Amino acid sequence: MGYQGDRFRERTSRELLCDAVALSAKIAAFEAQRVAVVAEVERRCTRVDHGYASTKGWLSSVTVVSPGAAGRIVELGAGLAEHPAVAEAFDEGRIAFEHALLIVRFCTKPPKGMPAEALPGCVAALLAAADGPLARTDGVRTAIAKLEAIFESDDQPTSEDTDRNELYVSKTLNGRVAIRGDVDAVTGEMLLTALSKYSAPQPASEGTPDARAPRQRRADGLTQLLSMLLAFGELGVEGGERPHLSVHVHARDLGQDRREEYARRHAGAGATANTRPPQDPHHPDSANGSDSTDSSDDTDDTDDLTDLADRRGIAWSPWMGPLTINTARLLGCDANVTAIILDEHGAPLSVGRTHRTVTRAQRKALAARDGGCAFPGCGATAAWCEGHHITHWADGGPTDLDKLVLLCGTHHRLLHTTDWEVTIGKTRHPVFTPPTSVDPAREPVPSRQRVGTCTRTRVADRHPPRRSTVRRSNVSGEKDSADDAAPVH
Fold first, then answer.
1. How far is CA 218 from CA 15, 198, 437, in A?
2. What is the mean pLDDT of residues 288-307?
3. Is the pTM above the cut of 0.70?
4. Which of 21, 48, 242, 401 has a CA that sits 20 to 30 A from residue 395's CA?
């Protein structure tokens, strides 16, 4: 048969462009047909018919389709049968396979807070985001993240679930090291940010392009990154500044009250999807005389979901895409922060001076006071911890020692995503107050540095049955007073 490219060598540039578009349309049509056929095979055929334990196994064994791709084909076929609007757009070639699968997965497992009658509007919004050749996966994921923010539930997005993180580093028989992993969006953002400088193409001095494949450049970049880290403890400079984690978030979203947000999500089935916390006179949106009666806030979120840009906000990271506001607030506790003022169209108006919210000197003082993660029963060392603002700096909280507490990543996330609260007592040590789901009386519990002289039930036994569990330890002693302290945000 020969090389297929020989057929096109005599074609003009214009003809080649038309051929590529026409063939792509045919491939999309055949892909839709394959999904439909495989869906029917899944519905009707059994092991007796094709000789395999599953349709996925059969398809990957008799074609060049990988097992993972075969499983996605089976999954999409089953989902399209339940959602005809998505099936129509996919069959007509308006949305890509990957985008159709993302939408089907959203429909199959929608946010717990979303009423059933809102699903058609959500599907329409997602189809609009996925429609046409200019649609990109990040855009579809962003639309999904915005919908999940509108109909929030207790479930953490898969992309931010740190309990799913895995990293395998194994020595092989030939003396090499095999690395395989699956990490959350924030960890991925940090990794890609750190690798960016060292994995970029490096042309030779005479201008010859870098011949290394991307996978080779990333491996070389990891080697260089680790060498720099071990030798100097720094990551060099890229684009005029040290590599750092960047998260873009609107001030009005970053400043939302976490406790009121948590209470809204737990208000019960009677709460509507567009419930907002009470208007704070010091909130950024209250400037220029605006109030909570603005017409944009009175619109029911379930009525029109096509204009997602004006809906409940999300944070955005350059490499990994959308993040929840809670994660943005968590990252903002102990970080370098640069304020970028945007106009109503999202265009930058000015860039403020970068400042660090928790200084190195303050971290040393926190380590001396808290001895590591201050959460009762936790044994994490100070080197593994982050400085947490008792009142978030976005809400006007100062970066003072008496307004900070040292927490490990697990308990830092716990305070940002649940109704646990932390205050500084009269002895100037942290005091933690559990939510009613843990202790209906909400009796304060002293930090781990203050638990050696009392008799008290184990904190771990009072912790809610969540994924982020607290290490067990005996907690005893007179509890610190919670007076004169601000609740956590």
1. 37, 8, 46
2. 42
3. no
4. 242
